[in-house]
Amino acid sequence: MTQKTLAVIDDDLAVRQSLLWLLETPTLAVSGFDSGERFLALGEAAANFNCLIVDLRMSGISGIMLLEKIAQWPYCPPVIMLTAHGDVPHAVAAFKLGVADFLEKPFDDARLLALVDECLARDAQERERYQRRVRVAEALATLTEREREVMQHILAGLLNKQIAEVLSISMKTVEVHRARVFDKMGVKSAVELAGVITVLDEAGSKT
Questions:
Q1: Which chain positions lie within coiled-coil regions (predicted)?
Q2: Which residue ranges form the domains of the chain, and what is each CATH number?
Q3: What is the pTM of this model?
Q4: DSSP string, 61-83
């Protein structure tokens, strides 16, 4: 089984150590960071964690400020926020930024463990969807302008003869472009092509 990774970002050493002891397993590697700045210093590698546990109140970058920064990443793993000073405004701000849950210290160990499991399962699904979108976007970027035009007409349900008439090109040329579109997009039919493009449409509807 592939090992999952989790980051604990909390400036309280005792809390970090207790969470490392509680959460570390043969299938889950846990790393501790004493500030949001140290976590962000990882750069792009920070997004590779499958789950983040973030303290709300830290010296330097607060938990909310850290959430605001990572919310701008192309992909953000699920975040569990912890606080000893929970209040409604902060909880609302955290949920608006996509936090998975908001737990007050001292938290129930069983509840946290269950929540981590939920977040890891959620990450597996959402990361796969994200990676699919990346693959589709990269494939689209390889299409020429004419191939994009042909693809749009294919998606609109036009036949090769109709596309040839609309674009004022020969049907043979349409067939060549159609074959190239299918090859670059990794599909074998117009139905499969529509399904692949839907991946990007769904992502756009969530933004």
A1: 120-147
A2: 4-127 (3.40.50.2300), 142-205 (1.10.10.10)
A3: 0.78
A4: S-HHHHHHHHTTSSS---EEEEE
- Which parts of 24-159 fold into alpha helices (H)? 36-40, 63-70, 88-96, 109-141, 145-155
At 175 the three-state DSSP class reads helix
Q: Coil, strand, or helix at residue 50? A: coil
Q: Mind listing the pLDDT tens digit of every residue in the chain (207 residues)?
A: 678 999 999 998 998 999 999 999 999 999 999 999 999 999 989 999 999 999 988 888 988 889 889 888 889 999 998 887 666 666 667 777 778 888 888 888 999 999 999 999 999 999 998 998 899 999 999 999 999 999 999 999 999 999 999 999 999 999 999 999 999 999 999 999 998 888 776 655 444
How many other C-beta atoms are found inside a 10 Å radius of the C-beta of residue 180? 17
